[in-house]
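Please, structure for the following, as tokens.
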Amino acid sequence: MILKGIFWVVFKSPAKAARPVVYMALSPDYENTTNEYLHMFNPKQMDPKVYEETERKKLWEHSMDLLKEIDPEWE
């Protein structure tokens, strides 16, 4: 019961968590905007690490590994 209360406060449902993404994708306010994301509808700048080639490659490879775990047929 206690954990359920904590999770309700800390974590959002997938539908609620997707709202900022959908808003940025469709809103003319963010047309031609790059290097920014919304965290709980507050604009945030990307971490400078995302512009480092080695870090980008590590993230891509890790993301692909996770995708392959979820869908082994993914190529």
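The longest strand covers residues 36-39. The mean pLDDT is 85.
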